[in-house]
Amino acid sequence: MQYDDINPLFQILNATQSAILKDGYNILLSNIGLDYQSDISANNTILVVGENKLANEFVSKTQDKFKIIQKSYIEQYGGIIGDFISIVENEEIQTSQIIFFIKPQLDSRIISKTAQIGIHFANEYHSIDSMINAIEDLIGDFTYENTILYNENKCQYHHRSKTGNSYCYECENICPTFAITKDDELKELRFSDIDCIFCGKCVGVCPSGAMQKANAPLIEITKAARLYQDKIPLIVGKQDIEYISQINDIKDSQVIPLVLPNINMLNEVYLLSILQSTGTQCLIYGNIESNLHDAIEFVNEIYNKIFNQKAIYTQNELTSFNDIKISSFPKYIYNAESTEFSREIFAERIKFFIKDNDYGILENKPSIKYTDLNIRSDKCTLCMSCVESCNTNALISSKSNFELLFNPSKCTTCNVCVDICPEHAIEMPLDGFRLHTSFFEYKTQAYDEPFKCIECGKIFASEKSITKVQSIMLPLFGNDEVKKKSILCCADCKVKIMFKAQS
Questions:
Q1: β-bridge partners, 434
Q2: Against a cut of 0.90, is the pTM above it?
Q3: The CATH number of 34-38+145-213 is which of 3.30.70.20, 3.40.50.2000, 3.30.420.10, 3.40.50.720?
Q4: Is the Cα dihedral 339, 336, 36, 147 positive or negative?
Q5: Which pLDDT score, from 0 to 100, does residue 249 have?
Q6: Gap between the Cα atoms of 207 and 341, Å rounded
Q7: Which CATH architecture has domain 374-447?
Q8: Residues 6+ apart with CB under 8 A from 413
Q9: Confidence category of residue 500, pLDDT binned at 50, 70, 90
Q10: 180 near 172, Cβ under 8 Å?
Q11: Other CB atoms within 10 Å distance of the CB of residue 82
């Protein structure tokens, strides 16, 4: 096992601290599989977009160096270095790199993103020679890390297109590069690991846990944190190791670094998992982005309400490590399953704290939103469209007695159920997170009496749904008594009476 990344820390830690740091680091790296690295090859095929004076000069000067395809414009492009596909007038053009000599028509939402590796803009270079050098540097074979773990079954964007809307693409929206892009036609995410800069923001912002880092998934971080029991983890990103290694008073203190790829991959689920694993407070060192800031505030408010003490301290609050006294909190060893959604894990951990108590309501944060859905039972026909659209199991049905049930702790407030309800019976007030057992339990939101087939007596629908179908279909059936009767029959009996009428 190589420790080049964390070697500077060993110089400022004692033997016990170093052993815990090393063992925790090994746990994180143990998740990395054989497919952690990929190879890519980029040849000298270049697409030049634009036919102005500078573009023509570039082509003239490099036609012996590169295999050039020149177009006055392109309609769109996609892919990664070595395999870009551009489209112009229904023609697909495959090249290794693209250089724009005109301003492309980019979506205003992505203008601020760092350009993909292999995509060049002429106005960013001070000379043609500097353009040539940049392109030549990217010709050849590359090895890069595959660090994005993605579970489409948990994703709040993947194939959720019943209303034509996109309900969550926070990962793509927050990504500062083109490592994550979305296809709004297919409702699928696209990943380019070679463009990933390991900022971790996609992991931290994902409300369902569909996105994780290969070298630091939640389960492994939780296992590593257990090594820090009764110690204070100093959570630091790899980019800040150099600064931490210059702090001399860590040695022989109760503080031990816990190194992650980037601190901004953390959210409230990760933070609570670390805290319950150690049973102490934790320290976070580094540049904290807004989503992590929300998570820290949210978890600290939970600890303040339950224990009258905060649990997470940030860089600006750190003084001498030798002066820090350990705060003791209840430990909870919870072995989450890889199939569990983030909010399921968070709910299980919070329930351990609150027991039968009521600690009030936490207000939502900009990036952390909870709701206790308001479903109008008088309007709901129990068609269960909302249940079919909910992929976190916050909404479920009890088909045996025609109940619609809702668990607010599992809801990510994606809003699909609100939009898809044909009766407009669902409202989503963003009323916060309640620290009471009722918030973590399924509650009946709508109920109806079962309807029995008038032929065989089998229950096959609810009273409300049959009434709704009758209101729509009876005017269309006119005087056809067989069709009218079929509404009141189960699928099997419906076929029988239709055949009987035609015989």
A1: 361
A2: no
A3: 3.30.70.20
A4: positive
A5: 87
A6: 8
A7: 2-Layer Sandwich (3.30)
A8: 369, 370, 371, 428, 430
A9: confident
A10: yes
A11: 23
